[in-house]
Design a protein that fits this description.
Order of helices and strands: HEEHEHHEHEHEHEHEHEHH
Protein name: Isocitrate lyase/phosphoenolpyruvate mutase family protein
Keywords: Lyase
GO molecular function: lyase activity
Pfam families: PEP_mutase
Structural class: alpha/beta
Largest sheet: 9 strands, parallel
Number of helices: 11
Oligomer: single chain
Radius of gyration: 21 Å
Organism: Streptomyces luteolus
Length: 289
């Protein structure tokens, strides 16, 4: 009788584990579908970029359904250069920490060039990000030495990721404008990345309205651009056909600037007046997830 009870208990436990896994898988699929649909709404997806758990949690609490990460913010926080493939572990750790938090924020991860030139290694890393809860990944073709990766190599990375994690949103980035190299190749590079399976394409540094309109006219997937202080507004970008607008490292740099301004103000005679500052308790709450 004891043996039969043990068998029954084991079967019940196995059934519960299976049901939990199936529920988690369904929730993951739904989250990735929701993120993809945000690129096809009436307005472009405005994607603010976080650099740690607190910034991601604060953005989610402010009502942003989706949040990206900024590779510059993650790298600077560690004291290493951005774009040098030095933050793979920290980026994965951030994805895991944000993925554990409440609220179901949709997280897209800036993974530089995938932290490897091997498509299989990039795909394995993307699988880890997906397992951590990420719904999207950014892969860039710019290299630390300021050159562009061969088109076919970057296309192979994209194809490998899509084969490994078909429903992970791959935002394929070309740095032709960001690095100011071979602007004329922007459309052809992005078209090749679309062919490789990219779900969206990204051209940071592109802000000229005519050039943006020309690009959206030939692309098959949503175009992502960086918000530029002197560039088109969100409404103007929408009219040009842009479907996603990222803030990149803007929030991180703004936070650093505010910290310096505050420190200088205290040194020079007093606290800045008028600016709202989050309370100690509000920040504490961000860490309770």
């Amino acid at each position: 009788m004891t043996y039969e009870r043990d068998e029954t208990a084991t079967a019940v436990t196995a059934t519960a584990v299976t049901a939990t896994a199936e529920t988690a898988a369904a929730e993951t699929t739904a989250a990735r579908d929701r993120f993809a649909r945000l690129h096809h709404g009436d307005e472009p997806l405005l994607l603010p970029n976080a650099w740690d758990h607190a910034s991601a949690a604060a953005l989610a609490a402010a009502g942003f359904e989706a949040v990206g990460t900024t590779s510059l913010g993650v790298a600077a926080g560690l004291g290493v250069p951005d774009g040098a493939a030095a933050t793979a572990e920290a980026t994965l750790a951030l994805a895991r920490r944000v993925g554990e938090g409440p609220g179901g924020v949709l997280l897209s991860v800036d993974a530089e060039g995938g932290f490897s030139d091997g498509p299989a290694q990039v795909a394995a890393y993307a699988r880890q990000l997906a397992d951590a809860g990420a719904v999207g990944i950014n892969l860039e073709d710019g290299r630390p030495d300021g050159t562009l990766a061969p088109v076919e190599l970057h296309a192979a990375k994209i194809a490998a990721v899509k084969q490994a994690v078909p429903d992970l949103f791959v935002n394929a980035r070309t740095d032709t404008h960001w690095l100011n190299r071979d602007h004329a190749a922007t459309a052809s590079r992005l078209a090749r990345y679309e062919q490789a399976g990219a779900d969206g394409v990204f051209a940071p540094g592109l802000s000229d309205p005519d050039a943006i309109a020309a690009l959206t006219a030939v692309l098959r997937t949503p175009l992502n651009v960086l918000a530029a202080p002197a560039g088109p507004t969100l409404r103007e970008l929408a009219a040009l056909g842009v479907r996603r607008v990222s803030l990149g490292s803007l929030l991180y740099r703004t936070a650093l600037t505010a910290a310096l301004d505050t420190a200088r103000a205290v040194r020079d005679g007093g606290l800045p007046v008028g600016a709202r500052v989050m309370s100690y308790g509000e920040v504490q709450e961000l860490g309770r997830g």
